[in-house]
Every structure is written in structure tokens, then in C-alpha cells.
């Protein structure tokens, strides 16, 4: 089956039906319309087998995650998603694999009301590159560079679940888990790894409220440093406040849980900063949404310094090189 | 060197300076503004080492080609290019390679006044995915589906050069070349392979004139079939009219030259169709541009049939299966 047929057969039929798509899959390029007053927001992320997902991951979860990590970038800008393009590199035309993969893609397309507007398929090592496009009203995009000393630091959801999920998926649980792992917890942690949830609603709600925002893809410590660098701030994090799931807390000791929450990647929660004055506004705005948001520290003017405290005492974690950059 | 630094170091400095880019490389996503009255045009193409370029191709040419093939898709829609995103998969951080690659990218960025707005780098087999975005005025995009029976079929430039260029690059010239290959011709043919020229100016000039357009990436016969299929037409091509370069004609016999012109890929010329009524308009519009355009046949109502004639006689080429689909 040739490339053209591959795209047509597996991806065109259920690629979505947005009214702002004038020309979708099947021409030299897609043509779409942006609403007046909205800026275009674009992001690209590649997932490579063996690097970003395990070779034995289900094609459904691979597709879902490839879309989710891109939508998470849009969420971090306060944007709403509209269209995706797919470049799929696959070693062969495995119809079963492609059927499951396209089902994962379609589930995301339907759930987020987005549309697949084009792409490319090549024969090569398994890799998925998605470009996601969305909108944000003019001058309302939330950046990494707008944070101010004094801002409160918040995160959505819980941290570290995907990190333990990865250890489970790689059968490395014996090394980290000291308590019996229940099926419920196991399922929850694997779901957090394989089916991350882009915090799109929260992202749009943070427009005009948050001074800065980033999505947590590489781990809390790595990612907050981007904000500190681009906003020329320092930060103090209060580790006893880190939101940890019951599944994580019930499966590993406290030290290990903190390690995952601080340095494991793939959480795809949002980290954002809000001035003291906007705190009330934030709480009112988020009250209607059923998304957990936790204040985990604050920013200061100590440029480039990341201070970790636990119950007001300096915290020495056993992962080197994370405290400063 | 980590991914973040890789992008920062090699690609950010000379990524372009367009005024419509509000946020470029370095945040979760790029934010850009589309001019009023313009639709967004988006395309994605992946180039894989060993498939789309030879493993020993120069990094400069790989970058140039990766951009060019995407801009060629925009040209085929009648769009002007604005922004590109890059996903680079490379086996290691080879500074010399990356320097040359980024130089190729920057040359294209400057030449076409586009901007690199984001991307991703992963460690893996050498592959380049570029997403190109541009604009076209509302309702002026040129599609594959607008062709009508009676339309004249045109192509830009000359055909088949990249095909012979590939044979030269692969050291397969002994099999096809019967005449001595001069250095000038060799250089020309290799340049046509490695440095294709997206026909952007012609594309924009064809708005409101051409009924349909496609870029020739897979070869004339393969690509015209997309137009025939999507426009429900047939076509007769007059092979004696095919525009062939002196370099091609001087290097191989007539039969071989036609074979390359008909079925070799990578030309990245435009094929477009124009009604008889618009012929004068086309000639006037293109007169000022120094781009060769040749009428090579016409469309008819014989849906799905591609007829090849040479000097008014049916042409039997020795490549099977190309006459019909």
C-alpha cells in the first residue's frame, strides 16, 4: 500500500469536521480560517519509540499521547486547540497497528473537537511528529517570561505519577516499591503515564490571571528553571505542599515519592505563577472547574536560584545538580 | 548538550525576524498573527536519510531541501510562506554537521523571509520533519480539485533533471548515460536534485488564473493523476512538448530523458491547469517573471484516463502501469 493510500485509508475518514477547515487532508496543503481577534499558536513535538514511549506500548496510547503532549503545550500558552498535522514514520504497513493507532487519534480528535488537516507517512523507525495549532485572543498568550518576584507558584493535578508509572511499565518496580502495589494503583499510575491529560480548560482560564505558565514534561525542577531563566526570578518550593496522588503515596516511601514529583517527567500538568493580587480571582475562576490546583511555593528576586524546603528546613534531595543552574 | 541547548544554540540566533511573530522559539509554543483577509495554509513533510536524501548528502543541502519541499507545497496552493517549525531527529550531537545544517536552514530563512518559530530535537535516526505555514487570500487557494475538461496543462521549469541527478549521486550513471557527462551538466543536475526551487512567485501569480495546481514531487505521471482523480477528468499529454533541460538532453538518449521526465520524482516544479479563456491572462501575468512555463497537453472528460502521445501518435513507454489508474 502506497503512502497516499495509507493516509487516505487510515486517517482521512474520521479526521474531524471543523467549519474553519476549508481544505483538509488530500491537497498539497491544508487551508484553514483563524477567527478575528485571535492569534495563531503552533507547537511541534516528536515521540520516538524507545525514547518517548516503550516499544511495546499500545498503538492507541501512542497516538493519544502524541496528541496530548502537543495539546499540553497549547494549554500552557492559554490557547484552545484547533488542528493537528501528523508525520508518521513506521517500519512497515501493519494494518492492525495502524487501525489501533488511528483509533487513538480519532478518540482525541473527537474529544477535543480538533481536526487532522494533513501529514506525511514515511517508511522508517517508529516515530510520530505532531504539529498542533490553536488560537489565543490577541495579547492573552501566557508565556514563560512574564513571572514576577512575589508570584505564587501553582501546579495542576498531582506530580510524579507518570514517573512511577514508567518504572512499572519497565518492570523496575522491585527497585522502588516497598509496599504491595494494588491493581487499582497500578492501573492509575500506568494511565497517568500512557494517557496524560492536557490541561486545556485550566490554560484558557488562566488568561489574564497567570503571569507565566509552562507544562511539566521534563519534571518539576527542570521545567520551573525555564520560567526562572526567562523571567529572571528565583523560587522557593515548599515540598510538603507538593500534590501527590494516593496511588503514589501508597506505593513508595516518602523520599521516593518526592523524587518522582521533583524530577520525573511526563506529568503534563501545568505549572503557573500568579501575583498575590490575583489569588482571589484565581480561586473564583477555577472554583467551577473540577481540577485540583495547589500552591507549592513562591518566586523571589534571587535570580536563577531554586530553593527546596520541607517544613521550612532546607531539603537535600539525593539527586545531584538540581538545586541550581 | 541537552535538547534545549541544542535548539537554542544552533537554531535560535538566526531564526528570522518577522514582525508577525509575537513569540518565537523558546516558549511552550509559538504565537503568530495572520493578516486580515488571509487564510492559513499548513503543510508537513518528512525527509528520512536513505529514503529522501542519500546518507552522504551535505547537511547544508539536506536543510535547504527540507525547507524547499515544504515551501513547494505552499507554492502549489498559491500561498506565500511565513513560518516553519523543525523536528530534527539526529543520532548524535555532531557540531560540524549541525553548524552546516543550520547554515542551510538560515539561508532559506533569509532568502524567503520566513521565520523558524519552534521545533523539537530528539536522538534517533537522521530525519527532518518541517511544518511550513503561510497565507493565501480567502477563497484564492488553488486546489487539486478545480480542474475542468478542456483545461490546458502547464508545467514550470524542466522535468527529469533531479531523476538523472539522483542516478549521478548514486553512481549509477554508467547504466543510463551514453554520452560523456560534462562537469557543467553534472553540477546542474546535482543542483536540481539537492537544491530544488519552490515556485512560490509563480504559485501566487496563478491565483484567480489556474483552475488547479500540484507540485511535482513523485513524478509527472503519478502527480497528474491526483488532479485527474480529484477533479474527475482525463488528460492527454503531448510528450514532444515536455520541457527538457539541455543538461538532460545532452546526457542521455531521448527515450531515457522522457522516462525521467515522466516518472522520476523530486522536480518540485508546478503542474497547473488553465482554461482556454485564461490563456492570454496567464501569458500576460507570467511575462514579467523569468520562469519558463510550458503547455504540455490538455484535460478531457474521459475520467481517470491518462493518454500519452508523441507527435500525435500513442506513446508506449517502457515503464508499465503508468497509463491508467
From TrEMBL, chains A, B:
<comment type="pathway">
    <text>Cofactor biosynthesis; thiamine diphosphate biosynthesis; thiamine diphosphate from thiamine phosphate: step 1/1.</text>
</comment>
<feature type="binding site">
    <location>
        <position position="215"/>
    </location>
    <ligand>
        <name>Mg(2+) 3</name>
    </ligand>
</feature>
<dbReference type="GO" id="GO:0009030">
    <property type="term" value="F:thiamine-phosphate kinase activity"/>
</dbReference>
<feature type="binding site">
    <location>
        <position position="28"/>
    </location>
    <ligand>
        <name>Mg(2+) 4</name>
    </ligand>
</feature>
<keyword id="KW-0784">Thiamine biosynthesis</keyword>
<dbReference type="InterPro" id="IPR010918">
    <property type="entry name" value="PurM-like_C_dom"/>
</dbReference>
<feature type="binding site">
    <location>
        <position position="73"/>
    </location>
    <ligand>
        <name>Mg(2+) 4</name>
    </ligand>
</feature>
<comment type="similarity">
    <text>Belongs to the thiamine-monophosphate kinase family.</text>
</comment>
<feature type="domain" description="PurM-like N-terminal">
    <location>
        <begin position="26"/>
        <end position="136"/>
    </location>
</feature>
<keyword id="KW-0808">Transferase</keyword>
<keyword id="KW-0067">ATP-binding</keyword>
<feature type="binding site">
    <location>
        <position position="266"/>
    </location>
    <ligand>
        <name>substrate</name>
    </ligand>
</feature>
<protein>
    <recommendedName>
        <fullName>Thiamine-monophosphate kinase</fullName>
        <ecNumber>2.7.4.16</ecNumber>
    </recommendedName>
</protein>
<dbReference type="InterPro" id="IPR016188">
    <property type="entry name" value="PurM-like_N"/>
</dbReference>
<feature type="binding site">
    <location>
        <position position="73"/>
    </location>
    <ligand>
        <name>Mg(2+) 3</name>
    </ligand>
</feature>
<feature type="binding site">
    <location>
        <position position="73"/>
    </location>
    <ligand>
        <name>Mg(2+) 2</name>
    </ligand>
</feature>
<keyword id="KW-0547">Nucleotide-binding</keyword>
<feature type="binding site">
    <location>
        <position position="28"/>
    </location>
    <ligand>
        <name>Mg(2+) 3</name>
    </ligand>
</feature>
<dbReference type="InterPro" id="IPR036921">
    <property type="entry name" value="PurM-like_N_sf"/>
</dbReference>
<feature type="binding site">
    <location>
        <position position="144"/>
    </location>
    <ligand>
        <name>ATP</name>
    </ligand>
</feature>
<feature type="binding site">
    <location>
        <position position="218"/>
    </location>
    <ligand>
        <name>Mg(2+) 5</name>
    </ligand>
</feature>
<dbReference type="InterPro" id="IPR006283">
    <property type="entry name" value="ThiL-like"/>
</dbReference>
<comment type="function">
    <text>Catalyzes the ATP-dependent phosphorylation of thiamine-monophosphate (TMP) to form thiamine-pyrophosphate (TPP), the active form of vitamin B1.</text>
</comment>
<keyword id="KW-0460">Magnesium</keyword>
<feature type="binding site">
    <location>
        <position position="322"/>
    </location>
    <ligand>
        <name>substrate</name>
    </ligand>
</feature>
<keyword id="KW-0479">Metal-binding</keyword>
<dbReference type="Pfam" id="PF00586">
    <property type="entry name" value="AIRS"/>
</dbReference>
<feature type="binding site">
    <location>
        <position position="217"/>
    </location>
    <ligand>
        <name>ATP</name>
    </ligand>
</feature>
<feature type="binding site">
    <location>
        <position position="45"/>
    </location>
    <ligand>
        <name>Mg(2+) 2</name>
    </ligand>
</feature>
<feature type="binding site">
    <location>
        <position position="45"/>
    </location>
    <ligand>
        <name>Mg(2+) 1</name>
    </ligand>
</feature>
<feature type="domain" description="PurM-like C-terminal">
    <location>
        <begin position="148"/>
        <end position="301"/>
    </location>
</feature>
<feature type="binding site">
    <location>
        <position position="52"/>
    </location>
    <ligand>
        <name>substrate</name>
    </ligand>
</feature>
<feature type="binding site">
    <location>
        <begin position="119"/>
        <end position="120"/>
    </location>
    <ligand>
        <name>ATP</name>
    </ligand>
</feature>
<feature type="binding site">
    <location>
        <position position="44"/>
    </location>
    <ligand>
        <name>Mg(2+) 1</name>
    </ligand>
</feature>
<keyword id="KW-0418">Kinase</keyword>
<dbReference type="Pfam" id="PF02769">
    <property type="entry name" value="AIRS_C"/>
</dbReference>
<dbReference type="InterPro" id="IPR036676">
    <property type="entry name" value="PurM-like_C_sf"/>
</dbReference>
<feature type="binding site">
    <location>
        <position position="120"/>
    </location>
    <ligand>
        <name>Mg(2+) 1</name>
    </ligand>
</feature>
<feature type="binding site">
    <location>
        <position position="43"/>
    </location>
    <ligand>
        <name>Mg(2+) 4</name>
    </ligand>
</feature>
Amino acid at each position: 500500500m502506497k503512502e497516499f493510500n495509507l493516509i487516505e485509508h487510515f486517517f482521512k475518514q474520521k479526521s474531524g469536521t471543523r467549519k474553519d477547515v476549508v481544505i483538509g487532508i488530500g491537497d498539497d496543503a491544508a487551508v484553514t480560517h483563524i477567527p478575528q481577534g485571535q492569534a495563531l499558536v503552533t507547537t511541534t513535538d516528536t515521540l520516538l519509540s524507545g525514547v518517548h514511549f516503550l516499544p511495546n506500548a499500545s498503538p492507541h496510547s501512542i497516538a493519544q499521547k502524541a496528541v496530548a503532549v502537543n495539546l499540553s503545550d497549547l494549554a500552557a500558552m492559554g490557547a484552545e486547540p484547533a488542528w493537528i498535522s501528523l508525520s508518521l514514520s513506521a517500519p512497515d504497513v501493519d494494518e492492525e497497528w495502524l487501525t489501533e493507532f488511528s483509533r487513538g487519534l480519532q478518540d482525541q480528535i473527537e474529544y477535543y473537537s480538533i481536526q487532522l488537516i494533513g501529514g506525511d507517512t514515511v517508511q522508517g523507525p517508529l516515530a510520530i511528529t505532531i504539529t498542533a495549532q490553536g488560537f489565543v485572543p490577541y495579547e492573552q498568550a501566557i508565556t514563560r517570561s512574564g513571572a514576577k518576584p512575589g508570584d505564587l507558584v501553582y501546579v495542576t493535578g498531582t506530580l510524579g505519577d507518570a514517573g512511577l508509572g514508567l518504572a512499572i511499565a519497565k518492570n523496575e518496580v522491585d527497585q522502588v516499591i516497598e509496599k504491595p502495589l494494588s491493581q487499582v494503583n497500578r492501573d492509575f499510575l500506568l494511565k497517568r503515564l500512557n494517557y496524560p491529560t492536557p490541561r486545556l480548560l485550566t490554560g484558557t482560564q488562566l488568561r489574564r490571571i497567570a503571569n507565566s505558565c509552562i507544562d511539566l514534561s521534563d519534571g518539576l525542577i527542570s521545567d520551573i528553571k525555564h520560567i526562572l531563566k526567562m523571567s529572571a526570578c528565583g523560587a522557593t518550593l515548599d515540598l510538603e505542599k507538593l500534590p501527590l496522588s494516593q496511588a503514589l503515596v501508597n506505593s513508595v516511601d516518602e523520599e521516593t515519592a518526592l523524587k518522582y514529583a521533583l524530577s520525573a517527567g511526563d506529568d503534563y500538568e501545568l505549572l503557573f505563577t500568579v501575583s498575590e493580587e490575583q489569588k482571589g480571582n484565581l480561586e473564583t475562576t477555577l472554583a467551577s472547574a473540577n481540577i485540583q490546583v495547589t500552591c507549592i511555593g513562591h518566586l523571589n528576586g534571587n535570580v536563577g536560584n531554586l530553593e527546596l524546603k520541607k517544613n521550612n528546613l532546607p531539603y537535600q534531595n539525593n539527586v545531584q545538580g538540581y538545586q541550581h543552574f
